[in-house]
Design a protein that fits this description.
Largest sheet: none
Strand content: under 5%
Order of helices and strands: HHHHHHHHHHHHHHHHHHH
Shape: globular
Helix content: 55-70%
Distance between the termini: 51 Å
Number of helices: 19
Radius of gyration: 22 Å
Number of strands: 0
Oligomer: single chain
Structural class: mainly alpha
């Protein structure tokens, strides 16, 4: 091989690596070829020696991502598994290890779901083209049982991001290996609180009777009179996200949607992130109050989670403009984007150990993180439901299934 070929190959790999690095940053945005060239340390003209245009870079990123993922999953497919339990666990473990060892792909992966409403089918097709065939795992957690795959996928990405952030902030002496973390997380997904906590602990599930559930539904489902008048700027932000996806949000596009100069928005807000933070704080103030009132009716942590899920999902159903904004926040930050918005007095968290002993994840977990994980499902599910044109009844039914998986696991 010629030296020039080696240089060319290395440069192309550096370009792709730099392109993915944009997704490693909080509040990632769409990048230009000029910004990409600056990250690589080459000229924009040099990029054109390897890629015809920006679309070619994006296509190469997708191909590279699926190439790497398929290599990981091919090892599982070629392995001889001795039991049905391994058939369930191994794909989860391999997926967790892939994203744990390649955290730059997490935001990229999540962003593709916002761009492509049929990305789950895209994954299937891309894997099939690389020799990863449909199997019992796919059948068990495919479209007919989408809540299970949704619950598992969201939980995997959530706790990998949490672990990565905590690992960066703390010394890693209290952290298990990636492999042990993967095993802990799979165990949690399969068994839920019931199988990973001990009887008598706050998180251990308490059965909710049908009669009690009906009463909690009456408490949790919101009437329209609790909502503020729609905010024009907030609606414009939601429209921009719908039109251009999460990566395409800019002050200019929000201003265009409002029919005003961008300088008018900059007069009130220093930047895009500050604008969104202010809007979201105001919008969620009502929901925070309602959550505080509704969850006060909870007799235990199980009821607290149920009320929180149903209250939030009914809010998203009644206030659809909040759905794309919440989805955008969830996918762009490395810590709780709603901190300060949901300052609910959770008496149950105060009774738990800090950090938690159970469930075990192989890194320190505080009670607030568990509650945040539970209560972000409505935002994520509403975003998914909007993309797949689910009815309000279907979304409500799905969040109640997810409540069961939180309590019992998917196994």
């Amino acid at each position: 091989m010629k030296v020039s070929d080696i240089t060319q190959k290395n440069t192309k790999e550096r370009i792709l690596e730099a392109a993915f690095s944009f997704f490693s940053e909080p509040f990632y945005k769409d990048f230009s070829l000029s910004e990409l060239a600056a990250k690589v340390g080459i000229t924009k003209t040099a990029i054109y020696r390897h890629f015809k245009n920006k679309d070619a870079v994006v296509a190469a990123m997708r191909s590279h991502f699926f190439d790497l993922l398929s290599v990981r999953l091919r090892e599982f497919q070629n392995a001889r598994l001795s039991s049905d339990e391994e058939l369930i666990k191994v794909p989860f473990v391999e997926t967790i290890l892939f994203f744990t060892q390649n955290p730059q792909f997490i935001n990229y992966f999540m962003s593709q779901f916002s761009i492509d409403a049929n990305f789950d089918e895209t994954i299937r097709a891309e894997m099939l083209s690389r020799g990863i065939e449909s199997d019992n795992f796919t059948d068990r957690y495919g479209k007919k049982n989408f809540e299970k795959s949704f619950f598992g996928g969201f939980t995997i990405l959530f706790f990998i991001k949490a672990r990565t952030r905590i690992l960066a902030a703390q010394n890693c002496q209290n952290f298990d290996s990636d492999e042990k973390f993967a095993q802990h997380l799979v165990n949690f997904i399969l068994k839920g609180f019931r199988g990973t906590t001990e009887r008598g602990e706050i998180l251990y599930p308490v059965e909710i009777t049908d009669e009690r559930r009906q009463k909690l539904d009456r408490i949790s489902i919101l009437s329209k009179d609790v909502f503020l008048e729609e905010n024009r700027v907030f609606d414009a932000l939601a429209t921009v996200i719908d039109k251009y996806s999460f990566c395409g949000v800019t002050i200019e596009r929000i201003a265009d949607e409002l029919g005003m100069a961008k300088s008018s928005l900059y007069f009130y807000f220093e930047n895009k992130n500050q604008l969104i933070k202010k809007l979201i704080e105001k919008e969620f103030a009502v929901l925070a109050t309602v959550l505080w009132e509704n969850t006060a009716e909870a007799r235990n942590y199980s009821e607290f989670v149920y009320i929180s899920l149903v209250t939030c999902i009914s809010y998203y159903i009644a206030r659809p403009s909040i759905v794309p904004v919440s989805g955008w926040l969830l996918q762009n930050v490395t810590e709780d984007p709603f901190k300060g918005c949901f300052d609910v007095n959770n008496i149950w968290e105060k009774q738990m150990e800090h950090p938690l002993v159970h469930p075990e994840f192989g890194f320190p977990i505080v009670p607030e993180l568990i509650t945040f994980w539970c209560t972000t499902f409505p935002a994520a599910l509403s975003s998914y439901g909007k993309k797949h044109q689910m009815t309000a009844e279907e979304v409500m039914e799905s969040i109640k299934k997810i409540f069961v998986y939180i309590q019992q696991g998917i196994q």
